[in-house]
Structure formats: structure tokens, C-alpha cells
Amino acid sequence: MSRSVDKAVPKTIRVIVADDHSVVREGLRRMFEGTTVSVVGEARTGSEAVEATTRLKPDVVLLDIRMPDVDGLAALREIKRLQPQIPVVMLTAYDDPAWLVQALAYGAAGYLLKSLSREALVVSVETVARGDALLSPAHLKSVIRELGAAVADAAGPLVGDLSRLTAREGEVLALLTEGLTNEQIASVLHIASSTVKTHVESVMIKLGASDRTQAAVMAARAGITRKTMNDE
């Protein structure tokens, strides 16, 4: 996992758990007891997840994919439309690459399996709450290569206003699509890591991205890569 903007994270991370199985919701609530994560709301359907997120404005949403009423991917799109600053992590039993790509195209901060250990899940929630990337660089690059049809079908607002970026911010954004850390980006651009951190913060604010993974996906959807930036 790569470091990003080091957002100020509260001592207690407020989380909404959205899953149609009560045993899963209760299990997660108990799993988080005694940790930095606190479940402040639950949802049984996709529409309930959207309503709870809008009302409670949590730090992170854990969202299942297979749910009644409105499925998780549709709920994700609506949550990111209404509350783009809130990171949403898909928590599912299905290890499906197509759903992973679709979820990231719709603005998810990550895609986790329910088989994840308690420690790993808590670390993942803390990582997303900080604004850090949940995917490894290799995994992120692989996903971005597979965006294809998912990009074409994704919600328009997630593209962000790229015209607001400076030339240097565009270069930083292009390098984010490769999953590079701030230190690696600094090495490529021959600037200080602290300067990269400032640029990443600015990019995320201007694009309305809740994390660097979402910013990278926005860049991929807009066709921004290191090659396209060098060709300009």
C-alpha cells in the first residue's frame, strides 16, 4: 500500500456497514470492537446505504455488491454522486475481476473479500480513511488496463474537472495511474516529496476524489498517462 496525502484521521473512524445479511453486519460490528473503527450505521439494501451515507456522513462505507432493492454497484454510483468525498469500499464474497474494475470505475476506494482477517480489514479501513491507496501499484496498473467497457459505462461526474489542473498537477496525476508512491513520483519529476504531496492534495481536491486510487481511475477514464503528458 502506498502513502498519499496523510489526511487528518479521527481517533475513531466512523463506518457504515451495508449488507443484506444481518449475521454479516453483526459480525463486522463485533469485529471492530476495541479497534479504531466504530460502526455508526447499518443498511440492508442499496437504497438504505445511500440514505444512511447521506444522513450520517461516515468516514468510510463498507458496501456489499449483492443486495436487494438496489445492488451495491448502483448504490456506489449514487453515493459518489451525492457524497463524492466519502470513500466507499466494496466488501464482498465474490472475487470477480469484472466487478472489481466496475467498482473502481464507479469511484470505489477498494474491493475487499469477506474472508479478510480482522487485522487486515481494520488496516484497510484505516488506509482508506487516510486517503491512501488500497491497491498495490501492480494491481492498480492491471485494473486500469482493464477499464475499457467499464469506463464507457461509468457515471459522468466521476471524470472530474481536469481543466482546473496545472501542468505539473497533470504530470503528477499521470504518474498516479502507474501506482507510484510520492517518493517515486518525486524521483521521476526531480522535485521534493513534500512538493509531490502538495500536488497530490491539490489534484484530489480539484477532482473531488476521496483517495488517490479514485484520482488515478479518473485519469485513466480521461486517457491521461505518462505518454500522453509527454506528447503534449
Helix/strand order: EHEHEHEHEHHHHHHHH
- Helix fraction? 40-55%
| CATH evolutionary superfamily of the largest domain | Response regulator
Head-to-tail CA distance between termini:
31 Å
Net shape: globular
According to CATH, what is the class of the largest domain?
Answer: Alpha Beta
**What is the CATH T-level topology of the largest domain?**
Rossmann fold
Number of strands: 5
Strand order, sheet with most strands: 2-1-3-4-5
Mean pLDDT: 84
SS class = alpha/beta
Task: List the defining traits of the structure above.
single chain, 232 residues, alpha/beta, Rossmann fold, 2 domains, 5-stranded parallel beta sheet, 5 strands, disordered N terminus
Structural write-up:
By secondary structure, the chain is α/β, with parallel strands linked by helices. The protein has two domains: 13-145, Response regulator (Rossmann fold, 3-Layer(aba) Sandwich), CATH 3.40.50.2300; 153-231, Arc Repressor Mutant, subunit A, CATH 1.10.10. The protein contains twelve helices and five strands. It has helices at 22-31, 46-56, 72-82, 97-105, 118-130, 137-145, 148-153, 167-176, 182-189, 193-207, 212-221, 226-231, and strands spanning 13-18, 37-43, 60-63, 88-92, 110-113. It has a five-stranded parallel sheet with strand order 2-1-3-4-5, sandwiched between helices. Strand 1, helix 1 and strand 2 form a beta-alpha-beta unit. Helix 8 crosses helix 10. The model is unreliable at 1-6 (pLDDT under 50).
